[in-house]
Amino acid sequence: MGQPVLTAAEMRAAEDAAIANGATVDSLMARAGLEVALAVRRLASGREVLILCGPGNNGGDGYVVAAALKGWGLPVRVAASTPPTTDAARKAHDAWGGPVENLHQARPSPILVDALFGTGMSRPLKASICDQLRRLNDRAHLSIAIDLPSGVGTDDGALLGDIPVADVTLALAAAKPAHLLYPAAGRCGAVRVLDIGMLVSSNARVINQPLLRSPGADSHKYSRGMVTIIGGDMPGAAELAAVAALRAGAGYLLLLAEGDATQPHAIVRKPFTTDALADKRIGALVIGPGLGRGAEARARLSQALSSSAPLLVDGDALHLLDDASLSAIHSRAAPVIMTPHAGEFDSLFGKGGGSKIDRARVAAVRAGATIVLKGADTVIASPDGQARIAWAANPWLSTAGTGDVLAGAIGALLASGLSPIDAASAGVWCHGEAASSLKGAFIADDVAYALTAVRSRS
């Protein structure tokens, strides 16, 4: 958590900077190989290790690992797809000094280490190599990938072949987008970042557990944050968002919606009026959950956009946005958070190109808003180029209403005074933790109520 996420180009720049400061390709490879070897030694527990080496520097890392394991007296074999083609990889191959089997003829081992292809791969992996990798992976008790499983796109998380799932991926120096973006993230298994003595930095990071302020002795309901939610045609969705906001820490929840009052009684319910949006105490205004898409919904959205309160736009409200309303969002003085899922995002901003991170960043600049592009691999991007990426979400969150819960949680954290990107990141983290605390087949209401325990310990 909190680790920087580097693209292939950013990793190359970090390596170049390290070399400019006195390192060499050989020394970087030696350090990376040693750190991987130490991890493999722990994981192998004395069992035979088969290391698959490719032609480039990722393969060179594999030869370094093999030499280290052999030096420690552990049983290790090496198989290669082709001979090494870089100077550093050739030196590592020569330092290994042992036999190198043909990948297509290698017999399986209990521990498999994939050092075929790593960061920067862009072309499809040959089907014959995929077949051999799968054959050996299926027969191994534990499979370990160095940096990335062979056959994934570093920056976009695409699959470049029918590759198997690694049990563990040992990321070198930093996390990469493919460790977090699907479908590649589903092939990485447990990801561990190894410190190889290289300085790395990026304006993209894995979301971290937030440090949220608890109420003080002088706190009151408005200082904790007032959240106003605009309801509409489907009251249940707005109710879910309201409950979630309170259980995520909001001190006052005003639900502007028609209909009879229901529990919890802590929600203040009033019919919608434009005057209610002028309350200067509003810390966050949430519109979208259950809003509907008719003329009244459009009018309420227009009035919300005209308000001076920090704004979160979700669900139905996203479907009602057009170029004019996006311009209105961009020109607002108060911040805006937008929380689209993939379909809503494509409808608003187009399918575009690049990775999910790239697309979220472009949309954030275009809208002048913080974008929470939801999914199994939620990406949060702000107009200044910052990005935060969530690790894999609980698949049981794929049920109606959980997006409304997320909107309420983020709204509460925005009302507490956090910056938009910090509020969005904290909301996504709390939402994921709440889901993880539940067993399978839960419903959105369960997630909303589970926020209390998450918020009290964060």
Can you walk me through this structure?
- With 458 residues, the chain is α/β, with parallel strands linked by helices.
- Helix content is 39%, strand content 15%.
- It has helices at 8-20, 25-44, 57-71, 87-96, 127-139, 221-224, 235-247, 295-306, 315-320, 323-331, 342-349, 356-367, 402-415, 420-436, 444-457; strands at residues 49-53, 76-80, 101-102, 111-115, 142-146, 168-172, 190-194, 204-206, 226-230, 252-256, 268-270, 282-287, 311-313, 336-338, 370-373, 379-381, 387-389.
- Helix 2 packs across helix 3 and helix 13 packs across helix 14.
- The radius of gyration is 25 Å and the shape is elongated.
- The mean pLDDT is 96.
The name of the CATH architecture of the largest domain is: 3-Layer(aba) Sandwich
Mean pLDDT: 96
CATH class of the largest domain: Alpha Beta
Separation, N- and C-terminal Cα atoms: 14 Å
CATH superfamily descriptor of the largest domain: Ribokinase
Strand content: 15-25%
Distinctive features:
single chain; 458 residues; 15 helices; Rossmann fold; 17 strands; 2 domains; UDP-N-acetylmuramoyl-L-alanine:D-glutamate ligase; alpha/beta; 7-stranded parallel sheet
Topology overview:
Elements: H1 8-20, H2 25-44, E1 49-53, H3 57-71, E2 76-80, H4 87-96, E3 101-102, E4 111-115, H5 127-139, E5 142-146, E6 168-172, E7 190-194, E8 204-206, H6 221-224, E9 226-230, H7 235-247, E10 252-256, E11 268-270, E12 282-287, H8 295-306, E13 311-313, H9 315-320, H10 323-331, E14 336-338, H11 342-349, H12 356-367, E15 370-373, E16 379-381, E17 387-389, H13 402-415, H14 420-436, H15 444-457
Parallel strand pairs: 1-2, 1-4, 2-3, 4-5, 5-6, 6-7, 8-17, 9-10, 9-12, 10-11, 12-13, 13-14, 14-15
Antiparallel strand pairs: 15-16, 16-17
